[in-house]
Amino acid sequence: MHMADALVAPAVAATMYTASAVTAGVSVHKLRKDDSAQKLPTMAVMSALVFAGQMINYTIPGTGSSGHMCGGMMLTALLGPQAGFLSMIVILAIQCLFFADGGLLALGANIWNMGFYGCFVGYYLIYRPIMRSRWFSRMSAKAASRLKLTIASILGCVITLQLGAFSVVLETSISGITELPFGMFVGIMQPIHLAIGLVEGLITTAVLLFVHETRPELLMDVGTSDQPVSGKCSLKTTLVILAVVVAIAGGGLSLIASSNPDGLEWSMFGNAEAGYSENMGLDEDDFGVDSAAADKAAAIQEKTAFLPDYAFSNSDSPAGTTVSGLVGSAIVAAAALLICLLGGFFRRKRKQKQS
């Protein structure tokens, strides 16, 4: 669901950059007092896991389309909405600048569509109410937590991805892209992202249930209404296992990702070459908005992207995908860790001045 620059007018792009920047600023402000030591490595590993997970497109049977996880719900369940949103900014910015995945002009919109809903709507309106509910109180605490995690993950991913897909339609409509009539675009985008959201919900459930078994205290709101549950592994072991999953996903599974267009591309261009519908039937080389701002953004992106489209330049070698997965995951983890360390440094400096 990474939007290209041609899908947003400069005014819309500026508005979405502002909305995302304000949300990021509020998130940083709220995290100033967060001194949780375990959040540093968790944020680094989980951000890398989401980056690697987004490289793996899974086929949506019978459609000619594919989808990939967004990851907002997963990050929020482990880091909280503010840290989860900042992690999504790191992931999407690195994808955009270094791998040319999503337009630079459209980055603010992509952060909003893929990060805001999963992190804030997903947490405050879905995850937290479910996890704090008294549902399944007749079950054991552990069984009740598992079931609530499953419901929250699937419901959260489905609803927040629907909101993100609808925002894409709104942003293109407000941008005046007449090739994408509102009603028809909604009618194609929403159903395909419903299927994509269901799969992401299952993936998110699997990861969160693993954490629930190993280090349940890492999960937000687990034990709020239930009795605390004990884990089976140390924090270090849990994070090492997740780091190994990152390496396998980014360096190996990404090689077998579906080649079908993702939900957004499929909605606009279809997949007639594989015998499926043309959908909107747009020309991939000539669609959307042309603007000087988009041209400048593309020129910057061309200079910064050293592995465009997760591959070596002018090469079809699968090694490019493996290198992209491993290098990208490492960069994301390092950037997330650096943000945490800088935040801790400024918190300590503030405390020293106050004392």
Summarize the structure.
By secondary structure, this protein is mainly α.
Instruction: Write the element-wise H/E pattern from the N-terminal end onward.
Output: HHEEHHHHHHHHH
List segments where confidence is low: pLDDT < 50 over at least 5 consecutive residues.
224-228
Order of adjacent strands in the largest pleated sheet: 1-2
What quaternary form is this? single chain
Mean pLDDT: 91
**Apparent shape:** globular
- Compute the separation of the termini in Å: 47 Å
Q: How helix-rich are the residues, as a percent range?
A: 55-70%
Over the alpha carbons, how many angstroms does the gyration radius reach? Answer: 20 Å
Strand tally: 2
Q: What structural class do helix, strand and pairing data support? A: mainly alpha
Note down, in words, how this protein is organized.
The chain is mainly alpha-helical and 355 residues long. It has eleven helices and two strands, in the order ααββααααααααα. It has a two-stranded antiparallel ribbon. α1 (10-30) crosses α5 and α5 packs antiparallel against α6. The longest helix is centred in the last third of the chain and has 36 residues, at 319-354. It starts with 9 loop residues before the first helix and ends with a helix. Residues 224-228 have low confidence and may be disordered.
